[in-house]
Design goal:
Layout lengths: L4 E3 L5 E3 L7 H10 L3 H15 L10 H12 L10 H14 L4 H20 L15 H36 L15
Antiparallel strand pairs: 1-2
């Protein structure tokens, strides 16, 4: 297993056994152990809520928990995270953070705001003086630039994945060469 958490071919979360050697995860697992299904669901939630590889990470943070609960724990929609789970999420974020992840998350947020703006714009909206509020040419320019924005997001996401893989290799004992740089390894 390459990562602490991975998604198998059926879309189920698998976690490396060494995860349970980490204090926070061990405490969560031992606390939930009488209910193995809940323990597995909560380990899945940790991945889906915090890992940059999660398909839910591009969902707005406000709706992310609800959407994940509908998919992972549809019979337990009133579930809320307790301190044990929050501690695990914080530890996992800390362990899996790369330098470019903040940039990627910021870019996702900005892109969602642009999408929301374009989705809700009223080109016929007028101010109190009867002038159009929005410039149709500017909106067209935004739309024309969308493919570039999407490509930039994809490039940033690939950079994050490259950094994650490199961090894993370094954690596994391989040393970084003297002149090795992330940009040269893309």
């Amino acid at each position: 297993m390459k990562y602490l958490f991975e998604v198998d071919k059926q879309g189920k979360i698998e976690f490396a056994p060494q995860v349970l050697a980490i204090k926070q995860f061990k405490a969560l697992w031992n606390d939930r152990l009488p209910n193995v299904e809940l323990a597995i669901d909560e380990m899945s939630l940790i991945f889906f809520l915090t890992d940059v590889r999660s398909p839910y990470m591009q969902t707005e943070e406000d709706g992310r928990v609800g959407e994940i609960l509908l998919d992972i724990m549809p019979n337990n929609l009133s579930w809320t995270p307790d301190q044990l789970l929050l501690d695990c999420m914080e530890k996992y974020k800390e362990m899996s953070r790369t330098p470019s992840m903040d940039s990627l998350e910021s870019a996702w947020i900005a892109q969602r705001k642009i999408d929301q703006f374009l989705r809700n714009i009223d080109l016929g909206e007028k101010d109190k003086n009867g002038k159009l509020v929005h410039n149709a040419k500017q909106i067209q320019m935004m739309q024309k630039d969308l493919p570039n924005s999407i490509k930039a997001l994809q490039t940033t996401q690939r950079l994050v994945m490259t950094e994650m893989n490199e961090d894993l290799e370094l954690q596994a004992g391989r040393e970084k060469a003297e002149f090795e740089d992330a940009e040269t390894n893309l």
